[in-house]
Amino acid sequence: MEYDELLANLRRAGMWLPAVVGLWIIIYLFNTLSWYIIIRDGKKGTPIPFWKVYKLTVSGFALNYATPVGLMGGEPYRIMELTPYVGASKATSSVILYVMMHIFSHFCFWFFSIFLYLALRPVDIAMGTILAVVGAVSLLAIYFFMKGYKNGMAVRTLKLLQHIPFVKEWAKRFSENKREALERVDSQIAELHKQRRSTFYASLSLEFMARTTDVSFPACILIMAFTSLFANLFFFSPMQLGAREGGFALAVGGLAIPGAFGVYTGLITRVRELIWIVIGVLLMKVGNGTPANK
Predict the structure, then answer these.
(1) For the chain, which has fewer Cβ within 10 Å, the N-terminal or C-terminal residue?
(2) How far apart are CA 257 and CA 259, in angstroms?
(3) What does each of the 294 residues of the chain score in pLDDT, given as a tens digit?
(4) Please, are residues 159 and 167 in contact by the beta-carbon 8 Å criterion?
(5) Which of 230, 292, 227, 219 is nearest to 255 (CA)?
């Protein structure tokens, strides 16, 4: 695609381009609310203001978009910035809980979309096989996440890493040196599910809702579900380059929608992501005072 064609497509978007960019203000609001109620843990007040959590949410996603292996950039930054307000243990557990909730909601979204596809589209043997595999993997992931919420996941994750080449020695040392802290994080993770069920399901609902021409709204949900699934299979690619565009192309083709919709949507999505990466990185330079400075 030539640059002139790219610019023509952006001009064609007109007022809808800022509308798409602005929509993510609301979507990030859902993400922030999900994390914020985890930080509050059922209490009336919190030592960190909501706007600060919103800022960390946007900046964290910006770093995740721009770094390989997704969560390697934004989550350490969120823990570092949150620690002065709630302490290292609470900051770590709340970020881990939010990441778990964010990933968990993906699997719930994909599992829900299987039934939506069955209700809207005819299913042949090939598609039936794909849906069965996606359903089985999603159910398995949901089961493991529920086990993790009940018993904690930090210690188990470190034990798993001890069997993986290149990181097993580091994982063993870290597990031995931070054993008490990891157990405390696990207890806080388990507490959310056991004692704060309303907080757990409110956070999950907010994360689920944040995912949500002749293209109907249910068809858009299916397109986003397939694109999200396809892109996350290539999580190691910075910004999931190529994977997301391929997901859009395959998704619209599977719904008998002209391929131009996929190309156009992929382009606008990339522009929106780049704009929010810039916003998120700029926000890292704003409002960085700690509670002691206020």
Answers:
(1) C
(2) 6
(3) 677 777 777 787 778 888 888 888 988 998 899 889 888 876 767 788 899 999 999 998 888 877 765 556 788 888 888 988 888 878 888 888 888 888 888 888 888 888 888 887 788 888 888 889 889 988 998 888 888 777 777 777 777 777 777 667 877 887 787 777 777 777 777 776 666 777 777 887 877 777 654 456 776 777 677 677 766 666 656 566 666 666 666 666 665 565 666 667 777 778 888 888 899 989 988 777 667 554
(4) no
(5) 219
- Supply 214's token pair: 């002749």
Q: Amino acid letter at 258?
A: P
> Which tokens belong to 207?
């994360």
Fill in the amino acid letter for 174. Answer: F
